[in-house]
Protein: Ribosomal RNA large subunit methyltransferase J
Amino acid sequence: MNYRHAYHAGNFADVMKHTLLLSLLAALGRKDGGFAVLDTHAGCGLYDLSGEEAEKTGEWRDGVGRVLDSDAEVLAPYLATIRRLGAPACYPGSPALIADALRPQDRLMACELHPDDVRPLRRLFRGNAQVAVHHRDAYEAMRALLPPKPQKRGLVLMDAPFEQTDEFSRLASAIVETRERFPTGVIAVWYPIKHRAPVRAFFDTLRDQGQRALLACELNLRPPLDPARLNGSGLLVARPPYRFDEEAASILRALTPLLAPENGEASVEWIAEE
Ligand SMILES: C[S@@+](CC[C@H](N)C(=O)[O-])C[C@H]1O[C@@H](n2cnc3c(N)ncnc32)[C@H](O)[C@@H]1O
Structure:
């Protein structure tokens, strides 16, 4: 496990993933009944943007650094939330954003396997009865913790580090299995776009397995031609909330000129209809 999110926190991929995540959480919060979120690859929760790791890559400057002063209405909830949680000194990761969106009837299960990341994650949520931190493998946790109880609806966020060459196929299997276990759940899966072939194969695998209602939201910084670079990032949402496709398109329309002013391109596409 070499991947450490502290080097990448607040980069363009985080901004894209987290703006869309907040929109999914807002949709879940529109109904009174409680919801549960399983964050399968949680990271450490809060990142110091002046820390050694963030400084070393400076990735956040081309990510959240470019959107902080935006006055786009559609980005306002995200900007207000990250400022409240510490930006620009710190950047809140997915479990901090999710915990912030919980109402008393909701809960979060956050899994993290790296011992150096699970320690600060536990510290962050010490005393918070709505958040359970699990030091365990994401794929094993999905089997053990789903479907959630007593909440019957919710979200599974899969945000793997893509260190393993078979991560796309592990995620495809996890999506299929998770939908069987938790058919009412929304699933959001982050994926890297280096070049198109692995992403196409991922979608084909899911379609071949009969998966329906899959929405792919993508933001490319440049045409995805060089497989050695992270050229873009995607969030695949299974069973998205009503009109999430429109909301995602307007979020990505606002982000693209800020994050990728030269060759940027965004898309929101149903890769399998309902
Ligand atoms: C991309 S980062 C997560 C970032 C976080 N979701 C966010 O948005 O702030 C991926 C995390 O998964 C952890 N990880 C790697 N393999 C894992 C596994 N098999 N199970 C659980 N966590 C894992 C890594 O240590 C890393 O912290």
Notes: The chain has a mean pLDDT of 97.
